[in-house]
From TrEMBL:
SUPFAM superfamilies: MetI-like. GO terms for cellular component: plasma membrane. InterPro entries: MetI-like_sf. Keywords: Cell membrane, Membrane, Transmembrane, Transmembrane helix, Transport. This is Phosphate-import permease protein PhnE. The chain crosses the membrane at residues 62-85, 106-129, 187-206, 218-235, 241-266, 278-296, 308-333, 372-392, 440-459, 465-483. It is a multi-pass membrane protein. It is found in: Cell membrane.
Length: 510
């Protein structure tokens, strides 16, 4: 007898597991509201949105936001395309790309500042490095999924480069273009967030406005950012890309941060991130390893393990809240549920939610509610529910119902959700790793996740400790991503689309 095969978990079992873990994590989460009058602060914020102080907006911050995004995403997408070609055949490339995308842009920026200072180079590379890993993986998937019929029509002896350029690239060009445009939207959000650590993007002025109670200026900056995202399809086109790239280079801030880049890089790699006990010591003697373990052990027990636990708690609660929010929100954009007047407003709401960076949402919620895990949970669930709800609405519009299908709540509960549930789980499992990455960086705002300890280590110039903590964050994200892919394969939903560019095309409002 060959042994008994374990039964595959079904949709219901996986849903119960995640819901149970989410409820258990909720009991461990810090959800206290410490603000004296959050309602009054919220009214002041809404007042700033209603009466924005447009004249107070620093125009150069908008230029820098666009410039960093154009150059960072362009560099990352270009490197990602080159890495995508050997991605399927090289384990080394796959591991390198997994590490690049597992480290959040803010962590990359905090490390790069030690070499390049508070400069445009830091902002561009902080976007380009993780986006290279992300684009390599997605581009490789798009290339592997392409129709191979054109390859079979090539004459014998055609070289690999020619075969790729003339047979495969034309088949995938449109999918690559669509995903790159979506990644540029993500790059705009990431670039704004980099302003919260001092780079001169819109986020820098937004944080200053919130700190000083200038809600009219904050409202104007938010509206300007939404306008940039909302009009992206009008000014980011194939024929405008050369002008955008040239304009981005010319619009970069004049400050260079530091001119001693070579010396800084040598010091950073050869000294700063090397664990203190083994700097200049030989690793061939047992005493060095004993000193290294004595140094690492308290970091592991007092920072990595509690930080990882809090990161997982935050991510699990946010994932379950995202699921519930998406199920509530997606009918607002589906033509079978929202009327011709309500549907455009529903789409506008969900596009706004998905366009608002989680870090910025958490920062705003922190001003309203005070320091706790609650602002981070709200930010993650609102943003990701907007994304998943928007995508599910597009899938719901692509469904075909029988003529005698029920209406209203029965259509939602008995026809639509059951047919979309596999796709719904695919989106959630894909967003799981992304939510975890964001949960880690919320430590910079004071939540006791891994980012809290990273920020403290960098503030104290203990870059060797910060490097170990960032490595632990990356390994945790890689582990969750691996588990997510395993669950998608087990549920037989690994081939369902999880990218915005792969979702069904949006249908016109009914």
């Amino acid at each position: 007898m060959r042994g008994l095969a374990l039964p595959r978990p079904g949709y219901a079992a996986v849903s119960r597991w995640f819901l149970g873990l989410g409820l258990a994590a909720l009991l461990l989460a810090d959800l206290h509201v410490t603000s004296l009058d959050p309602y009054a602060d919220l009214m002041r914020l809404l007042g700033g949105l209603v009466r924005p102080d447009v004249l107070a907006v620093e125009g150069t911050s908008i230029l820098y936001t666009v410039a960093f995004a154009v150059l960072g995403v362009g560099l990352g997408a270009g490197a990602g395309f080159l890495l995508a070609i050997p991605f399927a055949r090289s384990r080394t490339v796959r591991i390198a790309c997994a590490f690049l995308r597992a480290v959040h842009e803010l962590f990359w920026a905090l490390l790069l500042m030690q070499v390049f200072g508070l400069s445009a180079t830091t902002g561009i590379l902080a976007i380009a490095l993780p986006y290279a890993g992300i684009c390599a993986k997605v581009y490789a998937e798009i290339i592997e999924e392409a129709d191979l019929a054109a390859l079979r029509a090539l004459p014998p002896g055609t070289g690999a480069v020619s075969a790729f350029a003339y047979a495969r690239l034309p088949e995938v060009a449109e999918a690559l273009r669509a995903y790159t445009l979506y990644r540029f939207e993500c790059g705009m959000r990431s670039t704004l967030v980099l302003g919260f650590i001092g780079l001169p993007t819109m986020g820098f002025y937004l944080e200053s406005a919130f700190r000083q109670g200038r809600y009219g200026e904050a409202g104007a900056l938010l509206l300007a950012f939404y306008a940039l995202i909302g009009t992206r399809r009008l000014w980011v086109r194939a024929r405008t890309l050369p002008l955008l790239a040239l304009g981005a280079v010319l619009a970069l801030p004049a400050t260079v941060g530091t001119t001693a880049i070579g010396a800084n890089l040598a010091r950073f790699l050869g000294h700063d991130i090397v664990p203190a006990p083994v700097r200049g010591a030989s690793l061939l003697v047992p005493e060095s390893w004993a000193a290294l373990w004595a140094w690492l052990r308290p970091i592991l027990w007092t920072q990595i393990l509690p930080g990882a636990a809090q990161t997982l708690v935050l991510a699990q609660v946010a994932l379950v809240a995202t699921a519930l929010g998406a199920l509530v929100l997606f009918p607002l954009t589906a033509r079978h549920f929202a009327g011709p007047l309500a549907r455009p407003f529903g789409r506008l709401l969900l596009v706004t939610l998905r366009s608002t960076p989680e870090y910025m949402l958490a920062y705003v919620a922190l001003q309203l509610l005070g320091p706790s895990m609650l602002p981070a949970i709200l930010a993650l669930s609102i943003h990701n529910a907007g994304i998943v709800g928007y995508l599910l609405g597009r899938h719901a519009d692509a469904l075909r119902y029988r003529p005698d299908a029920p209406r209203g709540l029965d259509l939602y509960a008995y026809e639509t959700v059951p047919r979309l549930y596999g796709q719904f789980l695919a989106y959630l499992l894909y967003r799981w790793e992304i939510i975890l990455r964001e949960s880690a960086i919320f430590g910079i705002l004071g939540v006791a996740t891994l980012g809290f300890y990273v920020d403290a280590a960098i503030a104290e110039l203990r870059l060797d400790v910060a490097a170990v903590l960032i490595l632990a964050t990356a390994l945790l994200a890689i582990a969750v991503d691996t588990l997510s892919r395993a669950l998608r394969r087990s549920l037989r939903i690994a081939d369902l689309p999880v990218r915005l560019s792969a979702a069904p095309p949006a249908t016109p409002a009914a």
